[in-house]
Amino acid sequence: MISLKDAIERSRSNGDFTALNDAVPYTRFLNLAAEEGEGELIFRMGYRPEHIGNQVLRALHGGIIGSLLETAALSHVIWEMEQVRVPKTITITIDYLRSGRPVDTFAASRITKMGRRVVNVHTTAWQDDRSKPIASAIAHFLID
Amino acid sequence: MTPMNTDNNPALKSIFGEDHPLISHFGMEVMEIDKGLAVVRLPYRGFMVGNPETGVLHGGVMTTLIDSACGIAVFTALPRLQPIATLDLRIDYMRPSTPHKWLMARAKVTRVTPNVAFVVAEAWHEGEDGPVATAAGSFMIGTKLTHREDAA
């Protein structure tokens, strides 16, 4: 098994988060893949039936959407940090804007503030249309 | 402590009673339920790991557990079974979870209005002092049985 720090180092050096996604069991369950957009890191969560929280609506579970947002935020911090560290979540606040349909979901982040000990990140998730986000999150990570 | 039989409760049956891929995959079980209160247990499973070196759970697993517990608590506080949707959820991490131990979550509804219900929750390991995480959320009540996007 590849160590987390090695996977982080590898993902940072070539911007390919496959190594990190593969090293973490839960991101394998989320079915995540990282894609480099125009100077940004975009995560794609491939739809799986186990992601459904409401059978009647066929809507993604809020926890799954939150999981994508948190992972995308955390990976973005890893991507932009100067040193290899494993950030720890202090607080995450998720706003649910639209129900998630049973299709692939994307997420991208921007860092609001990179402090010495704490990073503040804003992440947005969308499906077919980026101008219609299904959820967003603000997360604080400890990078001490 | 043993899990509840959810067959006699229409709200719970709608979540747990039928074939539900997420609930069965996560192995979540309702331990206690009352008006505006739900206690849910989550087993430790290999796919939930966020740090393969320490075995600590991924934060998203906590979000899934707490969102589920809060949703069930809201269902129990409603006069009739209505669809609900999470509006927002804030989770504060007090400390990392302990690997290989089951997590418990208790959600309590603080107020129900015609449109919105407010909930607080905490998650802990049995036999350990203090919560692993605390949370606060709000839920829309009576969401239409269509995707909100299409209804908008």
Give an account of the 3D structure.
Chain B: Keywords: Hydrolase. Chain B: Pfam families: 4HBT. Chain B: InterPro entries: HotDog_dom_sf, PAAI_dom, Thioestr_dom. Chain B: This is Thioesterase domain-containing protein. Chain B: Residues 55-128 form the Thioesterase domain. The complex is a heterodimer of chains A (144) and B (152). Chain A is α+β, with helices and mostly antiparallel strands and 144 residues long. Chain A has 4 helices and 8 strands. Chain A has helices at residues 4-14, 18-23, 25-30, 62-80; strands at 32-36, 41-45, 52-54, 59-60, 88-96, 105-114, 118-126, 135-142. In chain A, the strands form 2 sheets. Chain A has a 6-stranded antiparallel sheet with strand order 1-2-6-7-8-5. In chain A, a hairpin with a 4-residue loop joins β3 (52-54) and β4. Chain A starts with a helix and ends with a strand. Chain B has 152 residues and is α+β, with helices and mostly antiparallel strands. Helix content of chain B is 24%, strand content 36%. Chain B has 4 helices and 8 strands. Chain B has helices at 10-17, 21-26, 59-77, 148-151, and strands at residues 29-34, 37-42, 49-51, 56-57, 84-93, 103-112, 116-124, 133-141. A 6-stranded antiparallel sheet of chain B has the order 1-2-6-7-8-5, covered by helices on one side. A two-stranded antiparallel sheet of chain B has the order 3-4. In chain B, a hairpin with a 3-residue loop joins β6 and β7. Chains A and B meet through α3, β3, α4 and β5 of A and α2, β3, α3 and β5 of B.
